[in-house]
Amino acid sequence: MPAKQAMVVVRPATVDDVDLLHRFSIDLATYEDEPDAVTSTPQTLARDGFGADPKFAALIAERGGVPVGFALYTFNYSVWTAARGIFIEDIWVVPEERRGGVARALMAALARECAAKGFKRIDLNVLDWNPARGFYERIGFRWIRSWLPYRLSGEALAALAASSSPATSSSKDP
Ligand SMILES: CC(C)(COP(=O)(O)OP(=O)(O)OC[C@H]1O[C@@H](n2cnc3c(N)ncnc32)[C@H](O)[C@@H]1OP(=O)(O)O)[C@@H](O)C(=O)NCCC(=O)NCCS
To answer: Which amino acid residue places its CA nearest to atom 10 of ligand 1?
Structure first.
């Protein structure tokens, strides 16, 4: 185990970290009772995060040079605020390092990225039973009670796409 007294260092993930990112993502999914939910692979992470048009970014937290946590995030845009923001997909600290300031260091790095780039928000979803809610509230996040997450995917998405409707021209973007 890394020495507790060593400082936490947060750095951007690189393509050399894809195995670690993949393992941490599976650890988080397992903790969230969805061990089979991760269908990405180190190869898809390399392709989608570290190519010419990255779809996500990630930070790695290390103590004494040993990875102890990560945050993986995407970027969004609000027409209301005319500004981009960060959406946190994953944040995870290894169990033996919890309550040692690792996640706060990751979040502070994301807050600094927002300040540097003019982003106005950091958003995330959290399962209702997850004690991580206490962490979020401790560092200043607020639960937006009036909004509920909705998703269209799988068969319902395919069925809507296949349903008859007036002809539309679609965007060139994927
Ligand atoms: C949630 C999690 C990321 C927090 O990481 P951490 O490194 O232990 O958090 P920190 O030590 O930086 O905590 C910062 C502050 O939040 C508090 N805090 C941390 N976890 C907390 C919890 N479960 N409940 C209440 N407060 C908490 C800390 O005591 C600390 O308070 P302080 O400012 O008074 O010292 C970590 O517990 C974890 O990896 N959990 C499992 C994965 C998970 O649930 N991820 C979120 C998915 S949505």
So the answer is: 101
